Amino acid sequence: MKKSTLPIFSFLIVLFLLLQSCNNSKTNHLETNKTTQSSSNPEKQPSTNKTTNQIEVFDANKMLFNGKLGRYFSLKEFELFFGKADSTKLMSEEEPCAYIFENPDGSKDLEDKYLYKNGSRFENSKDKVAIDEFRFTKKNYLKYNNVILNSHTTIKDLRKLFPNAVNAIDTLDVYGEGKLQVIQLREDKNNISDGHIKVFLKNGKLYFMHWWFPC
Asked: Region labeled Disordered — which residues (predicted)?
C-alpha cells in the first residue's frame, strides 16, 4: 500500500514557520538592544547648553583697567593713561574675524587700526578706542568687583571669582607663546554675544585676556 506524504509535508511547513518566527524574534530583540544602547550612550545624546550656562560671566561693565578705564574710552584717554602707542597697524591688513567698531550698515572703516602698547592690543576707530587684548605686565592690572587681578593672580585666586570656569580649565597652544592654560568666560548672562573672553595663565599666573569672536 502506498503511504501518504501529507503528514510529512504538513510537518515540514509547521517546522519552517516555527523557525521563521524564531528568527524574527531574535532580529527584533537585537534591534531593541541597539536602540536601547544608542539612547543610553551619552556621547550620542544631543548636546545642551546647560554646561555653558554654568560658566560665569566676565562683565565688561564691572572692569576697570589699571583702576581707571573701562573697556571703551577715547583716544585722548588712551594716551593719557597708557601713553603713546608703541606701534600701529591697519586692521584691514590683519583681516580679523570681527571688528569691535562697525558702521550701522555693517561696513568697516579702512582707517581703523590696532594700537599696540606694552604687549596689549587696542582697537581704534576715529576717536574711539576699545581693549581687544590686555597683558598683565608689572604695571597693568584689572580691578573687577573690587578685586585686583594682576600678574601675581593665581588659579586659586581666579577660582574664587569663576569656580565653574576654572573647573573647565584647558591648555591651548598659542602662536608665539607655546602651551598656556586658558579659561573661557561668557560675555553676558543671556548669551547674546557670539564670542567669549579667554583668560590665559602662564606658569600658574595670570598672563593676558582676549575677547574672542568666531569668523
From this structure: 29-52
Residue 71 CA to residue 84 CA, distance in Å, equals 18
C-alpha pair distances (Å), 102 with each of 60, 66, 72, 128: 19, 26, 14, 11
37 contacts: CB under 8 Å, gap ≥ 6: none
Q: Which of 201, 69, 209 is nearest to 134 (CA)?
A: 209
Question: In whole angstroms, what is the distance from residue 127 CA to residue 151 CA?
Answer: 30
Give 139's DSSP letter. Answer: S
SS3 (DSSP) at 60: helix
Percent of the chain with pLDDT over 90: 65
Model pLDDT for residues 151-165, shown as the tens digit of each residue: 999 999 999 999 999
Q: String of b and e for 146-157 (b: at least 16 CB within 10 Å)?
A: eeebbbebeeeb
SS3 category, 42: helix
Kindly report the number of other CB atoms within 10 A of residue 127's CB atom: 11
Nine cell digits for residue 211? 575677547
